[in-house]
Specification:
The chain is α/β, with parallel strands linked by helices and 383 residues long. It is 43% helix and 15% strand. A hairpin with a 6-residue loop joins strand 9 and strand 10. Its cofactor is pyridoxal 5'-phosphate.
Amino acid sequence: MNPLFANLPTTVFEVMSSLARETGAINLGQGFPDNPGPEDVRRAAADAVMNGYNQYPSMMGIPELRSGIAAHYRHWQGLDLDATTEVMVTSGATEALAGAILGIVEPGDEVVLFEPMYDAYLPLVKLAGGVPRFVTLQPPHFRLTEEALAKAFSPKTKAVVFNNPLNPTATVFGAEDLALLADFCRRFDAIAISDEVWEHVVFDGRHQPVLGLEGMRERSVKIGSAGKIFSLTGWKVGFVCAAPHIMKVLAKSHQFLAFTTAPNLQAAVAYGLAKEDAYFDEMRRDFARSRDRFSAGLETLGFRVIPSQGTYFLNIDITPLGETDDVAFCRRLVMDHGVAAIPVSAFYAEGAVKNVVRFCFAKRDETLDAGLERLAGVARRAA
């Protein structure tokens, strides 16, 4: 067996979700909402499967979705994309990431990774033969610094994998951070593989894509996710945007991974992307309200909350609780108190931070309130 995969531990998301199922715990760990998603988008998918085309669609994605993606990003992010040469549909953002990394990185190339990071990044870089160079971001702000980037970038740097907003920290990188990253990419002739799946789940202002930064149009891959935009995480419909000379290679990589994506889901996503601004604004307001409700509840109980600027997630610093091991803390949390959370150290490859724990607040009020009721026992015990 390939040791890269054979030696990987079971993902922490599956471990904690399994414990939640076994114990009947409230699952505030894995990042999925507990609502079914917008009804009109789901009905569009049902109609397309009953009355539409169900054979192989174009490898690049159905034309109406590719055009819809280009129009959506033009409206929301000011990007001018050619739908025929710069937009591709994938079977989820993880497939898009795999295709981008495998298409760009050659054996021996260095790839800059920011930790904490989505757990797929490092195995994919290693699978491509890349050499990871880590930038370890520190709580509570998790910002980029010129000193840290200077240590990670080198003449061998081929690419950087960048997640904004950042899962798991719920950080949104602002103009200063993005300008610093773009400067290093230009200086070292590196391609930015920009994982922007949370682009619509931001709570202050609009998302700024790396692709739109000065000098980055020809050296960026933008990755998005319909699953995150519409809270339909099981659909696995991803978007890739890149300049034609990059997209030609990414398309060939995609050809031998998933090849294509269910046409009815593509048709429904095309419908959804054209929805009025009010839908997207209300979606953000609803998530912000849930964030604020859960954050206020945690603070009332005495937890130290790290502010959430985007994503479905909220983090706490467990140091004031006298805790020094986030993994052990999360295991006790699910076994003794009936609440599943995620230890953020699982998102680090080296230099792990052990005092931060992530919760998902994309839940119904009653679910969050029940979780807070159980968490009150943790705070009382610590006091």
